[in-house]
Amino acid sequence: MPNYIKADQFFYPHGVRRGGYLELVDGKFGKHVEQIPEGAEIIDYTGYSIAPGLVDTHIHGFGGVDVMDNNIEGTLHTMSEGLLSMGVTSFLPTTLTSSYEQLLAVTENIGARYQEASGAKIRGIYFEGPYFTEKYKGAQNPAYMKDPRMDEFRAWQKAANGLLNKIALAPEREGVEDFVRTVTGEGVTVALGHSNATFDEAKKAVDAGASVWVHAYNGMRGLTHRELGMVGAMYQLPHTYAELICDGHHVDPKACEILIKQKGTENIALITDCMTAGGLEDGDYMLGEFPVVVANGTARLKSTGNLAGSILKLKDGLKNVVDWNIASP
């Protein structure tokens, strides 16, 4: 006989069901029902709401763990368990622009052991770089930036046991269209960011198969009335998805609202871009090779004061969108 969860409300993709029960069948969620069989076991969450687990598709670290440190035990346990405690049930460990050798080592460890994650499950690896350009480098190291190479990608993918399923690059790099066409044909999602690309350059990458915009507005050429740039392409090109950090620091709430209205909720992916200090106190930390100061709700490069990822919890980003009256539960 199934068990049943009792709660005040249950969130579904297109509505909220008040009261009632949610079936648990063989450890999996079943139907929402109003009545349950006599004698059925009830897990009572009266006073609470039940929602699907969150998925963070862009996250560099949490709880003192940085994916680029290649501390695989930390990623599999400290990070994944910490994320689960915050409502995240799946995530993509995200790298930074680094050396070929360091990226190879990180992917090899995750690819070999990702199924051992004891909390939130690892659903792939996201390469944020190294095929970027310097003008909008953000907290990425320009020393390692270069044009895309299929031989490198194939070596990383082999090391990852095929787990590398998302990669970000700048559209203006040499050879991007052929690279995008090839890797998307193999099932890899290509994102565009850390880029000074024109609208036309971005469109060519999208036409080749790119479909995601990296942390919208941040690390990309802005929109003017004479050159639409990356932001204009993000607004204008259909069938693409924008990553959005809703911490109130990376993007003004009104700019979040404009983007969500322009693209529609189905084409927005709330992310954190969280770094190692997520879930910890203010202080001095590292993001990859760069010293970072965490204070007043932000993580900033010690050298320049530029934002360096976030310390956002995804559940708080979701709450902000509701509190800002951009979306309703």
Number of domains: 2
Strand content: 25-35%
Number of helices: 8
User: Count of DSSP E strands?
Assistant: 19
Largest sheet: 9 strands, parallel
Going by CATH, the homologous superfamily of the largest domain would be Metal-dependent hydrolases
| CATH topological fold name of the largest domain | TIM Barrel
Instruction: Please tell me what the overall shape is.
Output: globular
Low-confidence stretches: none
| Helix share bin | 25-40%
CATH class of the largest domain: Alpha Beta
State the CATH architecture of the largest domain.
Alpha-Beta Barrel
Structural category is alpha/beta
Through-space gap between termini: 31 Å
Average of pLDDT: 96
Order of helices and strands: EEEEEEEEHEHEEHEHEHEHEHEEEEH
Whole-number radius of gyration? 21 Å
GO molecular function, one term: metal ion binding
Domain Amidohydrolase-related: 50-274
Family: Belongs to the metallo-dependent hydrolases superfamily. NagA family.
Enzyme class: hydrolase
Walk me through what this model shows.
With 329 residues, this protein is of the alpha/beta class. The protein has two domains: 3-50; 54-323, Alpha-Beta Barrel (TIM Barrel). The protein is 26% helix and 29% strand. The protein contains eight helices and 19 strands. The protein has helices at residues 72-85, 100-113, 150-159, 176-185, 199-208, 229-236, 253-263, 314-323; strands at 3-12, 15-18, 21-25, 28-33, 42-50, 54-59, 61-62, 65-66, 88-95, 121-122, 125-131, 164-169, 189-192, 212-213, 241-245, 268-271, 283-287, 290-295, 298-301. The strands form four sheets. Strands 6, 9, 10, 11, 12, 13, 14, 15 and 16 form a nine-stranded parallel beta sheet that branches. Strands 1, 2, 3, 4 and 5 form a five-stranded mixed beta sheet that branches. A hairpin with a 2-residue loop joins strand 3 and strand 4 (28-33). Helix 2 runs parallel beside helix 3 and helix 4 (176-185) runs parallel beside helix 5 (199-208). The chain is globular, with a radius of gyration of 21 Å. The two termini are 31 Å apart. The model has no long low-confidence stretch (mean pLDDT 96).
